Amino acid sequence: MNETKSPTGSYYERHIFFCLNERKHGEECCARHKAQEGFDRCKSLVKEAGLSGPGQVRVNKAGCLDRCAAGPVAVVYPEGVWYTFVDAQDIDDIVESHLKHGKVVERLLVPPEMGR
After folding, report:
1. Does residue 8 form part of some domain?
2. pLDDT value at residue 8
3. pLDDT of 45-65, one tens digit each?
4. Residue 34 is part of a domain; what is its CATH number?
């Protein structure tokens, strides 16, 4: 079997993980800020652009990523770039700039000190 690998030698060139965690009792969480919509849009755009699959991009759901104060959040690996997003345009920009061309979307970066 011939497996496609990224130039970095990993199975996927990039992974983007979306926190979809939902907390009980009114606590802040990404699920309350339309994280699922962001995930669904990203997955759809990546597939439509032909970016999904081995050697390319994988869009994944995640539980709590412990950056609740910045929610909703997503993180792109292997770069370890943390994003926040509020609407479809933000997701479009992440896909077009970072996932397609490897350029960080500066305006959507989560400040490094922002945690839970």
Report:
1. no
2. 58
3. 999 999 999 999 999 999 999
4. 3.40.30.10
